[in-house]
Amino acid sequence: MKTSELTGAALDWAVAKCEGASVSIRSGGAMTIDGAGDWWNPSLDWAQSGPIIEREGISLEFRPMGSMFEWVAFCGEEFEGGETALIAAMRCYVASRLGEEVEIPEELMEVQS
C-alpha cells in the first residue's frame, strides 16, 4: 500500500514497525505494542506520536491544497500530507523509514476498506 494512503490501524501498525515494536492486533484492527495493555494509535494520540515527532525533527505546516487545506509534514528529504497533523507526521515518519510502499498485514487491509 502507498505510504501516502495509510490511515487508521494500517498507519499505526507501520509506525510500530518503524519503532521496532512487537504488535498484537486485536479484533477490528485495534492493537497494542510490546505486550503493553494500552492501545497503540499514534495517528490519533499526541502522547504517542509527540515524542516521535520531536525525536525525528518532523515539522508540520497547514497549507492550501487547491480549494482546500491539508497538513504537510517534513522530515529530512521526505514530506507527506494528511487530513490531520498526526496523520501527516506519521506518514512522513513511515516514508522516511520504510519507503513509499508498505506491505500491510491482511487483517489490517480488511479494516482499511
Structure write-up:
The protein is of the alpha+beta class. It has one domain (3-112): Bacillus phage protein (2-Layer Sandwich). It is 38% helix and 23% strand. The protein has helices at 8-18, 46-56, 85-98, 106-112; strands at residues 23-25, 31-33, 59-65, 68-75, 78-82. The strands form 2 sheets. It has a 3-stranded antiparallel sheet, covered by helices on one side. It has a two-stranded antiparallel ribbon with strand order 1-2. Strand 1 and strand 2 (31-33) form a beta hairpin. The chain is globular. It starts with 7 loop residues before the first helix and ends with a helix. The mean pLDDT is 90.
Radius of gyration: 13 Å
Note poorly predicted spans.
Answer: none
Q: So how many helices?
A: 4
**What is the string of SSEs from the N terminus onward?**
HEEHEEEHH
User: What structural class do you assign from the helix and strand content?
Assistant: alpha+beta
Neighbour order of strands in the largest sheet: 3-4-5
Approximate shape: globular
Largest sheet: 3 strands, antiparallel
Mean pLDDT: 90
The first-to-last residue Cα distance is 12 Å
